[in-house]
Write a structure and sequence with these properties.
This protein is α/β, with parallel strands linked by helices and 378 residues long. The protein is built from 13 helices and 16 strands. The strands form 4 sheets. Strands 7-6-12-13-14-11-15 form a 7-stranded mixed sheet. A hairpin with an 8-residue loop joins strand 12 and strand 13 (288-291). Bound molecules: flavin-adenine dinucleotide and uridine-5'-diphosphate (UDP).
């Protein structure tokens, strides 16, 4: 019997929506379902006091892939937002990522040579300590950070923040987490090294609406609540939910870190003068404060909107019922994920894609790149 749809797409996040867009353009009939009450997955925004509030955490689009950048801009134009977070350590402010502004604020050095000399001095101390302890390479995040940038920056800008974010000591975390933070001998506060970055003009919902225009969608429906019926509707399934859940947790459950958001509407136009302020000391329980309007309002626009919305982010361990945000890439979880991936690889009618179904911490651009790369049968 001919099925109603070519593809049933489980999940309307960027993976599902991008795939649906392409499949529809290729003449395929698609149904996109989502268990949440709205489309868009984690990039979804909620309008509050005229401000797009990033409901599942601040999202900044960045990529060096021109094909991906052109693709998203063909759906909605992006603004010139450049992420330049500020760190607050015990009331003193420092620019991020680590650059000449940070080094001036930390040590009073004014030139790249002076900064370089200071960093080298601190690095040498860290390397000597590490070697005295019998290691030739950094064995964990703490050693990696000190060897990269020295003890002062580690103590003030890295240690507390990282321990809050991951709920583990820096000496128990893998070194790679910190390797991606840029260190620059230039007065350049741009957090990313990528060629392109920005926020969709009008917000992320415009991107999702553009991708899903003309495509059948249903929200408030969980694939697992009536799996057989959903499976009977389409020839193929694109699954972007949790990989372990698809296989009924038969090998055990994968773990995640999650974030709890405390949102406040404030009766002032400008609270912190920046979209992102990190609180890097251990004693303050939240990791950062997001002031959403600064993603899309610049200069006078900030003051034309009389209120502001802020979110304090509390990073916590995930338990059932919470949003699964960050995969935990330790040995146990990686091994478990591999077992599930082996099952997934043998499926002929199911495509697994995205953050949850691949159990991989993907940024938005690589998700889109991947969804654009999957071949759609003629
Ligand atoms: P999701 O957006 O999670 O979509 C999956 C969808 O599937 C959800 O809507 C879910 O409800 C639905 N679903 C799951 N199971 C079922 C089911 N059983 N039945 C029906 N529906 C189901 N990336 C960046 O590039 N820049 C950033 O600044 C950035 N910040 C981030 C901040 C946070 C806090 C988080 C968590 C992520 C951030 N990311 C960022 C990553 C970005 O969110 C992801 O790359 C992207 O949203 C993943 O898209 P996806 O489609 O794989 O997953
Ligand atoms: N980090 C830090 N201090 C900061 C910001 C980041 O120590 O003010 C560290 C922290 O360990 C974090 C890592 O750098 O996990 C990567 O930061 P990024 O902002 O890239 O992480 P994301 O929140 O995007 O996963």
């Amino acid at each position: 019997m001919e099925k109603m749809y070519d593809y049933l797409i489980v999940g309307s996040g960027l993976f599902g929506a991008t795939f649906a867009y392409r499949a529809a353009r290729a003449g395929k009939k698609c149904l996109v379902i989502d268990k949440r009450s709205h489309l868009g997955g984690n990039v979804y925004c909620e309008k509050t006091e005229g401000i797009n509030v990033h409901k599942y955490g601040a999202h900044i689009f960045h990529t060096s892939n021109k094909m991906v950048w052109d693709f998203v801009n063909s759906i909605v134009e992006f603004n010139r937002y450049t992420n330049s977070p500020v760190a607050n350590y015990q009331g003193k402010l420092y620019n991020l990522p680590f650059n000449m502004n940070t080094f001036y604020q930390m040590w009073g050095v004014r030139t790249p040579e002076e900064a370089q000399a200071k960093i080298e001095e601190q690095k040498a101390e860290a390397v000597a300590l590490m070697k005295a302890d019998g290691a030739s390479e950094p064995r964990n995040l703490e050693e990696q950070a000190k060897v990269l940038i020295g003890n002062d920056i580690f103590e003030k800008l890295i240690k507390g923040y990282t321990e809050k974010q991951w709920g583990r000591k820096c000496s128990d975390l893998p070194a790679f987490i910190i390797k991606r933070l840029p260190v620059r001998l230039a007065f350049d506060n741009n957090y990313f090294n990528d060629k392109y970055q920005g926020i969709p003009i009008g917000g992320y919902n415009k991107l999702i609406d553009g991708l899903l225009e003309g495509i059948d969608t249903q929200v408030n429906v969980d694939f697992f609540s009536d799996r057989e019926r959903w499976e009977s509707l389409a020839d193929k399934i694109v699954f972007t939910g949790k990989l372990d859940e698809f296989y009924d947790y038969r090998f055990g459950k994968l773990e995640y870190r999650t974030v709890r958001f405390e949102n406040e509407i404030l009766d002032k136009p400008n609270y912190q003068g920046n979209a992102v302020v990190n609180y890097t000391e251990r004693e303050i329980p939240y990791t950062r404060v997001i002031e959403h309007k600064h993603f899309e309002m610049f200069g006078q626009e900030v003051y034309n909107c009389p209120k502001t919305v802020i979110s304090k982010e509390f990073s916590t361990e995930w338990t059932e019922g919470m949003e699964p945000y960050y995969p935990v890439n330790d040995a146990r979880n990686n091994e478990l994920a591999e077992k599930y991936r082996a099952l997934a690889a043998s499926e002929t009618k199911v495509i697994f894609g995205g953050r949850l179904a691949e159990y991989k911490y993907y940024d938005m651009a690589p998700i889109i790149e991947r969804a654009l790369s999957i071949s759609i049968e003629k």
